[in-house]
Amino acid sequence: MGEHVHVRVNRGLSVTEDGQLVELSRCPCGESWTRSYRPDEGAPER
Ligand SMILES: [Zn+2]
Questions:
Q1: Measuring CA to CA, how many Å separate 20 from each of 13, 14, 23, 33?
Q2: Ligand 1 center–CA 3 separation, angstroms
Q3: Which DSSP string do the residues of 13-27 spell out, in sequence order?
Q4: How far is the CA of 4 from the centre of ligand 1 (A)?
Q5: 45 within a domain of the structure (yes/no)
Q6: Does residue 11 belong to any structural domain of this protein?
Q7: CA of 17 to the centre of ligand 1 (A)
Q8: Domain total of the chain
Q9: Which domain holds residue 21?
């Protein structure tokens, strides 16, 4: 009972001083997440 499936609503992107890309997400229940991307990793092209 009471299982809640979080819905991650994208709240936008921001860039830190280090140059990292940070994605902000939030669920209507109040839970929030931040996800950072490093430009050095996972580059799709060389
Ligand atoms: Zn939720």
A1: 10, 8, 10, 16
A2: 10
A3: EEE-TTS-EEEEEE-
A4: 6
A5: no
A6: yes
A7: 30
A8: 1
A9: 1-40
